[in-house]
Each structure stands twice: as structure tokens, then as C-alpha cells.
């Protein structure tokens, strides 16, 4: 394909991606795969070049552009070499019309700016559309961070968490013996810091209420050397079923899993009433803190979706609170920097549950925000998170 034809392909694909984002259709990756399935003439270099153009637009425009063409014209502002490709050739885009405007680069949809926590500044917001590094968590019950650093040239110790290692660009840890032997797992340093903030202890009962595929459950196990009772719950069968094989790779045993029925969670957790010394709530959220990994999510977020997440978090906190033992800890976290999902959610919780109080965990290095803390890519080099450590009175 000639460069102009690649540009036209990117325009067509972006039109589909923009429509899918608006109508709740397939993700960009799926649409790109489908597009090339019916265009066998495109070789691997063509596909890579088109994909690169598409993702430059997705990352560059926080607000969905009016069209694929507007996006590509917008990209010419930072990449003038694209300009001559609007050449009207048989497979290329039409020449840019006089006064035809391109999309403007913005880090996020304008309506969303006021929704962020009060401590989030423009540098934090800009950092959400950067590129994310790849971090691993060292299983400290199996090896040491020094050994892992010695085995991976150019790997660096994480800045804030003692278990974290930052991999050099493009390093494939899944091909490395350390991964196959279960000595390391892929996990953003921010997620590791949440586990640091939870401070899990051996000899206690720990409930990981929104365990998903168990990323943080495994970290909780590792920190306690497997000497705590760990109950991992989720409402999503497919996600929860991925926990057991992951645990097996690391040699982590005896993790109890419970599949919860949405709306009937309390009934399945009755035996744990006042029984959790640590209740970890890694709640479902809008994911505004993980835009570096999923920039297309900015085009899909709506007021209604945010309200849905806020309601789900409220519901989870309501059935979670009774499970915390007197003197026990509820660690609440979301990978979002929106006030409604973080500081406001916890302020409301503490207003309605006077048996809980905020506990400081300044040592983690987060930015104090309401009754909790924020982690941001700009300040901490991690994904964006809000977390709060709450203690139930005895
Ligand atoms: C942020 S993800 C958890 C990620 C996971 N902790 C990890 O470290 O990989 C939120 C999880 O909450 C689960 N969830 C949603 N509603 C729930 C509910 N009512 N009770 C328990 N889990 C729920 C979702 O299925 C999802 O897996």
C-alpha cells in the first residue's frame, strides 16, 4: 500500500472506531483486526503503519473527533509529513479543502475536566494519555528483588514499592524463566502500593471482595507467605476462574474463591460477618486512571456510565462494611481519579458508617485527597488510583 492509501485506511478505520465508541460497539483492536481480515492485500508493514496512525489519533484526541478525516488532518499539526498524503490519488484521501479544520489535541473530553478530584492538576491529566511502562511484582516469598534485577539487564527497582521492578521497553517477561517459575507477575507499581497500604498480616482473615482474576489476591498471598486465610470473591465467573491457574504457577495454595450472585452478595458472605481482619475492595470503576493502557476509553465514558459505577461502588461498600472485624481494616481502591468514585464516595461512606474512621498511610507516598490518597502517572509513575484505609471501631 502506498503511504496515501495507508492514511485513507486509517481514516476509514477511525470512522468505524468513533461510531463504535458512540454506540457501544466493538473495541478498536477488534475493528482493526476485522478491517484487515477483508483486505488481504495489506502486508504486515501496512498493517503496522495503519495501526500506528490510528492509535496516534486515539491517544492524541481525548475528545472523540468528528470523523476519521478530521482526526488525521488534526495530526498534521504535529506531523506535517502527513500533509502531502492528502493527494486525491485513487486510494488516498481527497486534498484538504481551504479552511477545512482538523480535530484539536486534547487530553480528555471537555465535560469531564471538572469531575476530577480537587488535587488533580493539569499535569496529572496530561500524564493520563502518555505511554505506560511495564512493571512486575516480585514474589518476595519466592525470591528477592535483587535476584530479579540481576537477571534482567536494564530493569530498574520501582520507586515506591519494595516488590516492584520496572522492565526495559519491549522486554517480554512471559518468555523468561522468572515468570515461568512463578517468581514474578505482571502488575503496575500502583497496584502493588495498594497492597502495601493494606498491610496484610499472617495469621489473619483477608477477604479480597472484587478479586477479578486475582492480581491483588496473589500479592496479598505473597505478602503473608501464604499464612493468612484468603477468600477471593467476584461476580464474574470467567475472571475469577483465571485465579487458580495463576496461583498454581506461583505455587500459591489454599486460596478460597467465591462466585457472588449480583444483588445477593451478602447472603453468600454471611459466615464472614465481622470476620475479615482485612477487607480489600478493589471496586469496579470508570478506569480514568488507566487511560495510558486504554486511551479509547475516554471516547466511551458518559455521565450515565460514571453514575453506574458510583452506584455499584456504593452497593459494594454497603454489603462489605458488615464483614469487617472490630478493629479490622477496609482498604477501598479504584483506578480512577474522579472525585465521585474516590473522595466523595468515601466521604459519604464515613458519614453513614460512624463505626469506621480514616487511618493515615502517609508512608505509601500518595497525595492526600479527601479521606484518602491519590496516585498519578505524573507524580508517582504509576497508573492513577484513589485509595483509602478505613478502620472499624472495636
Ligand atoms: C477493578 S476490578 C478488580 C481487579 C482485581 N482486583 C485485580 O487486581 O486484578 C473490579 C472487579 O469487581 C467485580 N465486581 C463488580 N461488581 C461486583 C460485586 N457486586 N461484588 C463483587 N465483585 C464485583 C468485577 O467483576 C471486577 O472483576
TrEMBL record:
GO terms for biological process: RNA methylation. InterPro entries: MeTrfase_RsmB-F_NOP2_cat (IPR049560), MeTrfase_RsmB-F_NOP2_dom (IPR001678), RCMT (IPR023267), SAM-dependent_MTases_sf (IPR029063). S-adenosyl-L-methionine binds at residues 234, 261, 282. GO terms for molecular function: RNA binding; RNA methyltransferase activity. CDD domains: AdoMet_MTases. The keyword Transferase applies. PROSITE patterns: SAM_MT_RSMB_NOP. It holds the Pfam family Methyltr_RsmB-F. Residues 100-393 form the SAM-dependent MTase RsmB/NOP-type domain. Keywords: Methyltransferase, RNA-binding, S-adenosyl-L-methionine, Transferase. The keyword Iron-sulfur does not apply. The active site is at 335 (nucleophile). Transmembrane segments: none annotated. Belongs to the class I-like SAM-binding methyltransferase superfamily. RsmB/NOP family. This is RsmB/NOP family class I SAM-dependent RNA methyltransferase.
